[in-house]
Amino acid sequence: MNRERAKSGFSLAELLVVLGVAVVLISIFVPFVRSSREASHRSRCEDNLRQINDAFRLYFRASDFNYPRTRASTDTAAWTAFTGPDDANPFADDSKVAVNDVTASLFLLVRSKHITDLNVFVCPSSSDYSDEVKDASKRSNFRSTRNLSYGYALPFSLVPEYRLNDTMPARCAILADKAPAQLSDTLSSTSSNAGAFRLRYLNSPNHRGAGQNVLFADGSVRFEITPFCGVTKPDHLTDPGDNIFSALSDSPLTTQVAHDSPGVASPAAGPSYAYDSVLVPASDFSR
Known about the structure:
Blueprint: H1 2-7, H2 12-60, H3 102-111, E1 150-153, E2 173-177, H4 183-187, H5 196-199, E3 212-216, E4 221-224, E5 279-280
Antiparallel strand pairs: 1-2, 1-5, 2-3, 3-4
């Protein structure tokens, strides 16, 4: 009877072996699935930026080759976002869209009908969701901070030489996955030559801090593992480029400071020299 019982089922040792093999297989399979899914999301995110770039090119033709911009202030670089979403005219003097609104500027691509599928503004790796727009002529902005996964280069600056148009150098960042929350708290403690683990705190949260898809002025899109990838990006790591998520200074510069300086991340700070990319809003922006 003992022999028959042994043949009819697993022993405890055999069961433990089977469970151990299952755990090993799961530990290999789950990260592989996550990695494959993230690779797919990055590719779709990159395609979003390419579609938005196509819309930029169409918009250029009707606006003297300038990137979209709503009303600008002449006396402050302070910017805002997501104001007056249900206003019918963002350019009216009495518009509820505030001056220097960066997201209303980007939304002009929707008003001009160069973009009709608002899913392109949502990174598939994020938890954001698409806005619903029935009549673009009656809307002037994204309704929620969760409707936009990307940061747009500020088209507002008190620097006379700053122009967000087709004269920008090829490596100027125009659009990218949104900056992380509480960026200002991390800038001063993380240098441009920090390791990958520390740079995760400066990278966009859309891709779990691994980096961000960036659309550059020449129309190229690249996944950058550091935000120090702006216009002066060199071929070696000891001389970093501009941090695309922060201004070099909170006021216009008479001389350009080092690109690896901490920088400023604030709604009061705009581009501080001619080629200072400042992509906003960040993930934690609230109006």
